[in-house]
Structures
1.
Amino acid sequence: MKLAILGATGRTGLEAVKQALAENHTVTAIVRNPAKITLAHDNLKVVEADIFDEEALKSQFSGHDAIVSCLGFPPQKPTVTGYLEVTKKVVSAMKSSSVSRLVVCHS
């Protein structure tokens, strides 16, 4: 399966990447800062994108079987608004990219 994982530099996201790779899935880690991913694997592609930019997400989601969202926001930010806004962008980008599976593990 070809997976796009959001929040891949956080604890949960990195674990999702590792487990997906261990199961021989192809993974695109969509991150703010690619330098934070030190993991290397033939089935891993790391790309930089703004999770609040629907167009950027569309281009990264295209061709994937599922999206895994492991996003987390720092406590000082308005988390409810952040999660809501990101989820709207993700779902809209998924529809435009013909991706129908979403796994959400926000923390």
2.
Amino acid sequence: ATADISCRTCGAGTYMDSSSHSFTSCKQWTTCKAGEKLSGASAKSAGECVACGSGTYMSSASHTNTVCKAYSKCEAGTYVTGGSASADISCKACGTGTFMDSSSH
């Protein structure tokens, strides 16, 4: 007697890009590195890693996040330093004799 095969939907973070197959498990989505986000991943696609856009970053290494984080905002009396595709900005206090009067910069 032959057992019937039942197909199951791939779970979160996994996909199967082949039809008419006999694989017993789904494949893992593409893993991205710091400075990138996962784009186009689905139950049928591994997705691909793309660089974080301007004003955003991703510090996590070896991840499947689909959205990069927005840079922090600095308040009045501080200025922006640093910031890259893999690291948030820092806010530093203005030095003696200098100022920044706008917030959320």
3.
Amino acid sequence: RALEYYQRSLTIKMATIGLKHPLTAGTLDAIGQVYYRKGQYDSALFYYQQSLALTRAILGDNHPDTAITLHNMRLAYDASKGKSGRALE
């Protein structure tokens, strides 16, 4: 059910505050986390990549939210490859 609620939240945010907003980027990251927990790493990476692009554009490369999404991407990437501790290439 979490995914359903996050998708609804994303729809509302897109309609009200738009794509280029930190809350929208955060929701994309949250959707990625749901997919990650479900073991659907490719879907998780898809949403993390969208979140990262927005976060970098809105908040910059050195913002903590950017670092969090990069960390989440690394975890999903490693899990998708059956590895741990490997950085994104």
4.
Amino acid sequence: LVVCASSVSNTIKMYINYLQDLANEAAKQEKPILDFPLPTKEELGEGGRSCDTTGLKFMEIKESEGKGKGFYARTDIAAGTFVLVSKPLGIIMGWEEDDFDDDDDDDFEEDKEQEKQLSKEEDDDEDDLMKSNRRNGVLSIKLAKAIKKDPSLWFNQISLLFPREKDSLPTWFCEHAETGMEFERSINDLKEINEFCEKKTLIEEIRQRLPFIVRYNCLSVETAPELFVYPNQEKGGQVSLSATALYNEPSYFNHSHKPNVSRWSIGDIMFFVTNQDVKAGRELCISYIESELLCESARIRSNLLEMDFEDVDDNDGSGEGENDETDGPVISLDVQDELLDMYPLDRLDEINRLIRQSRGDSNEEDIDMDVDEEEEDIFWFQCDTYRLEILLALTYESLGQSSKALKEWKKCIEFAEKKLPPADEGSIPLYVQAALCAASIGQESAAKHYADIALKNHDLIFGGGVNFFRKRYSEEMELELRSSSKALLGQAALDALWPV
């Protein structure tokens, strides 16, 4: 699917570039606050891939069988259409949760006793309780305080979101006791304003529904998380901008394991873009879980969603024999960090051993190794091998074995093309690294091929053509991932493979 950069209006390009400039500056701060502007009417543009802040230009809200309300296409929508751009009703930055930890150190023992009591109550009547993590609890507090300042936030927006009835909801409690008590105080404070004074039933509705509205509708907010530089703030990664937020209109997107809409953020502004052509009358859906997990069985996807619906379709297997207690992929971020901390040659051996194990073809040498009993019962996700192959490619690059690295990049790309949604943002860095790797070993034709696909997919999802690609990937190009003397870096890499 090819969408020319010229199909994105110049006003939208200018707006997105302006947001990216704001994000680049905010990411340098230790504790950034995100409050970026929505586009003006002039910046929204007309026709083509023009943005919409309501979602109702391209979509309409209708009842979705078994899902409640959802977005449906009013007319045929082309791939690469910006169907919605939105700003959150409330947001909690990642660092805010860390600060909350520091503030509560003095109350630690008291909190632990309260948590034990809550856990006992949960065990006594598990069906009538819903435990929440601290992040969602703090976001609920911030929203309650925002409602106190502006009651219309509840009446006109938040109250319209799922779940819309309170009667069948279980009792909510936060796994962190102090956060739960602070939420109760923020709800009780609503009695101080006219709109809620003497309205005990309404206050009780907010008390019961608000945490669940957050639970079922909040979204992770990350700026350029697909980049390899993302976790490294010192080198330009924007991990400091990570957050969790509640949006209004985006809450009407239902989940699908075959999403036809991709979402991405710059700061707190979130864009929703069709990743394929969508016919009139079809529902537009996003994924509620990481795209690389969408290829797992229905049973695993449903466990990971932790929602009150099953993620199935007519072609799904049952997933019988899979571990219901599986928390997620084996090769987590922590495991990846541990592997990257190893000496390269040792890392190479360990990654290859894990890849064999993930594929179920361990050799005699692996079997003879001292292995914990728990390790023998590991359930491997499909994306575990994919994650290991990325680490293997990076390891070969660091050892100057770029020809072997390119073979691994090709395997990663094959997984992305078969298993990820169309033009998924996570696939773009793979094409970028394959292009740089091929260029470093003199395979100019292959380098251009991968570079062209990277740009095409980037433009489909993010718009802005080659200029915006160069802006988003400028810090990525500075990473010294390969030891070859012919490796392209920085501006030279951009000019050689993605010239203006």
